[in-house]
C-alpha cells in the first residue's frame, strides 16, 4: 500500500520503503547552511516555517517540541544525518528552530567520546525501532 503526500505523489510504499531518494528531499543539497554536530540540540521556537517546505520539514518540526539532538531526529525520520542537517538548517534559517551546540567538555583525553557509550545508545535506538 502506498501512502500519498502533497499533490497525490506516492512517496512511501509499505513494502518497498521510501520511493524518493533522500537527496531529493534536500533538493540535492549536501551542505547545511549552519554547522550541526550529531549532538547539537534543536528546539522549536513557535515561529511558523517558510511556506513551500516539504513534508519532512513539518515532520522534523513536530519532533522538536522540546530539546532533541540531531542524531535522534535523523533516527526518527529515517534519513541520513547529512540530509537531516540540511532540513534543520532550513528551519533554523527561517527562525522556526533554535540550535545549541553540545556543552564543551574540558580539553584532553577525557574529552574524547566514549565508544562503548555510543554503541550502547545505538543499540538502544535499534531496539526502539
From TrEMBL:
InterPro entries: DUF742 (IPR007995). This is DUF742 domain-containing protein.
